[in-house]
């Protein structure tokens, strides 16, 4: 799936306030994302996405999803999203984020059909720009 740049709307789902703030700043300053929406919990993000779809609101172009979060983690979020009745929600593209360089986790993430890429945190403006380049050429 090819994603043209800049991405109109990105939702970052991460339990780290610092990572949320940095992702928002870096995505916007690098020109990769026009709008960034942040959510500190995967279950809240799932609810917000469902409400957005039901109301006819603008869904994100891309989800940046942390793997390890308390409560609903990234993989549980992917499973829940995949089971939703709304096709637009089920097929929203995802880039997984993790502070762990664990190769097994990396491969598990990339094996999911909605996952386009995997980024090891901490990210940076250069990492997001490289990601955008990869996704725009995919």
Structural description of this entry:
The model has no long low-confidence stretch (mean pLDDT 91). This protein has a five-stranded parallel beta sheet with strand order 2-1-3-4-5, sandwiched between helices. It has one domain (7-137): Response regulator (Rossmann fold), CATH 3.40.50. The protein is built from six helices and five strands. The N and C termini lie close together (6 Å). The chain is of the alpha/beta class and 138 residues long.
- Give the terminus-to-terminus CA distance: 6 Å
Radius of gyration: 14 Å
Ranges where pLDDT stays below 50 over 5 or more residues in a row are: none
Please tell me the overall pLDDT.
Answer: 91
Keywords: Phosphoprotein
Domain Response regulatory: 9-136
Modified residues (4-aspartylphosphate): 66
Protein name: Response regulator
